[in-house]
Design a protein that fits this description.
The chain is built from no helices and eleven strands. It is mostly beta strands and 120 residues long. Strands 2, 4, 5, 6, 9, 10 and 11 form a seven-stranded mixed beta sheet that branches. The model has no long low-confidence stretch (mean pLDDT 94).
Length: 120
């Protein structure tokens, strides 16, 4: 059974940085699409960034400020966020979808989420 556990969230001032981690057990990254999503209060869950094989995708709102990466040997997914803004405040979720190129949709396996709060 696949399990995803996020960590690294917290309170940070605007302009600061955070690195989120997602440790996966029970699966391999190599043939799956891994993504970071976020959900702010009263809003729908949205894709932040995803990685599939050697390809990546980013939401327009984080392009140039976020970098998604993974360590296949450690089965860990990362999201480096720089120049954080108050509008980045949300619960950030790790997601795994079976197969490559699965960029969109809210199916797959989810972690429990980690809170990111950016103060102005």
């Amino acid at each position: 059974q696949v399990q995803l556990v996020e960590s690294g969230g917290g309170l940070v001032q605007a302009g600061g940085s955070l690195r989120l981690s997602c440790a996966a057990s029970g699966s391999s990254f190599s043939f799956n699409t891994m993504g970071w999503y976020r959900q702010a209060p009263g809003k729908q869950r949205e894709l932040v960034a995803a990685i599939s094989g050697s390809s990546t995708k980013y939401a327009d709102s984080v392009k140039g400020r976020a970098t998604i990466s993974r360590d296949n040997a450690k089965n860990t997914l990362y999201l480096q966020m720089n120049s954080l803004k108050p509008e980045d405040t949300a619960v950030y979720y790790c997601n795994q979808k079976l197969g490559l190129g699965r960029w969109y949709g809210i199916d797959g396996v989810w972690g429990q989420g980690t809170q990111v709060t950016v103060s102005s």
